[in-house]
Amino acid sequence: MRVVVNGLGEMGASLALAIKNSRDDAEIIGVDRNLDALNKAKKIDLVVDTSSDLKSVVADADVIILATPIRAIIATLHDLLDLTLKPGVLIMDTGSTKDQVMQAAQPLIKKGIAFVGGHAMAGTQRAGIDAVDGHLYDQVPYFLVSDDQDAVYRAKELLNGIGVHIIRVEAQQHDLMMAYLSDLPHVVAATLVNSTTQTLTDYPELPNYAAGGFKDTTRIGAADPQMWTDILMTNHDATLESLESFQSSLNRVIEALKANDATTIYDFFDHSKQLRQKF
Amino acid sequence: MRVVVNGLGEMGASLALAIKNSRDDAEIIGVDRNLDALNKAKKIDLVVDTSSDLKSVVADADVIILATPIRAIIATLHDLLDLTLKPGVLIMDTGSTKDQVMQAAQPLIKKGIAFVGGHAMAGTQRAGIDAVDGHLYDQVPYFLVSDDQDAVYRAKELLNGIGVHIIRVEAQQHDLMMAYLSDLPHVVAATLVNSTTQTLTDYPELPNYAAGGFKDTTRIGAADPQMWTDILMTNHDATLESLESFQSSLNRVIEALKANDATTIYDFFDHSKQLRQKF
Known about the structure:
2 copies of one chain form a homodimer.
Chain A: E1 2-6, H1 10-22, E2 27-31, H2 35-43, E3 49-51, E4 63-66, H3 70-80, E5 90-93, H4 99-110, E6 114-120, E7 141-145, H5 149-160, E8 165-168, H6 171-194, H7 197-202, H8 212-218, H9 225-234, H10 236-258, H11 262-276
Parallel strand pairs in A: 1-2, 1-4, 2-3, 4-5, 5-6, 7-8
Antiparallel strand pairs in A: 6-7
Helix pairs in contact in A: 3-4, 6-10
Family (chains A, B): Belongs to the prephenate/arogenate dehydrogenase family.
EC number (chains A, B): 1.3.1.12
GO molecular function, one term (chains A, B): prephenate dehydrogenase (NADP+) activity
């Protein structure tokens, strides 16, 4: 089974390695614009072949996994329309928002090509093929989005071997859940960091006094700016909904503090304490 | 040296233990409303004596450390005015906001009593004497607030033995730094948790999909509601300033997202990534 993986970053390379390790018949073909990544992939024996051009290797692929940043996934889904693909090819992606990806995949799906949107709740602060980890996907939730039962069956068959927990969802449900669990926390963490700008100018020693609370809450404020800009732009409506919900909730706390309303502030913290225990 | 510690919670009991371990002449007298805490303090040999009533043990104290919740510290500072204290007694507190404490201490200071406000950047999610840890203060920043050089000298002498890094600050500078490093992150974490309320009702499986980003960012959303209500109410102005600064910053992101302005969103994340590396 020839598996073309387009994008040998942390997610793509780790998925390729997990698939390679889980089945004897898997031959990985690695595609990346970055030649260093391709050389590294050869060096660690991840791939049987590499290319810097997806077009040149798709014709005999049994599976094509799109693991680039999300805007490139969307562009590639359009490019694939004009290429000759092997009959029965299964195309999947790893993008962290799904509604726009599924819309971009519609023309391929209408041509009868099997496409399954995918998103694993995995990944670290590291990036690139140097972060490759064959166990990155162990036991993680892995969302699949598709109305095509046969395609989902084949995707499950491929992914079951790597030990993920598969969950089928609708694209919009997926994106709303991710807005609250991931996009909103990233925006909030970055806003927290940025709101120290003036105080940091006034008191340059401020970082010496940051304890675990600040550090944990802002850790993802150091995430990759381009990746998170792309995620926000491609999960636009759900993220905006979550941001506005957060903003209303915050405004209520600010009003309560202005009014010296300790009861409302207590209830606010108490509700959070109860709810946080579910996570 | 008789050291009365009022409030045998995590901070007070751990400070008492660190002082006891650091000098042979220290005799700790533990005061708490909670009889279980007093029994535990005896059982672990932390104290030479205990009382549930501060008034009954202050007369021969060389040092009095107020380690209760902050509103109780303020009330106690008023109560102490009417009691007979040993000449030369040093009074300290451990409250996490300092401006209101220093104001409450003014009448004592005017009577010539040595008072030094204190706040250590230590503490865990645990609470009560069961969380006692003689190493809780190792290498942590410890703020001291006082204009009384002699009192500060004596407080330093007591605290140097427990291995803290002493920093002298003005009360208002301390409180503003804490607003950004601690109070604002706590409000934001709790707001993040609370803003999932509706989504959690719609999709009860939501917590299964929370990854490290959400968990880290919201960890302190499970903090003690009463303690944080007190901190917000006693660090009112600085917290409000930090909340309004955060709110403005967040509004700019929301407007940029509404306008599909990817450049502003990229700059926002990029600024945060740069700034976060200082912490």
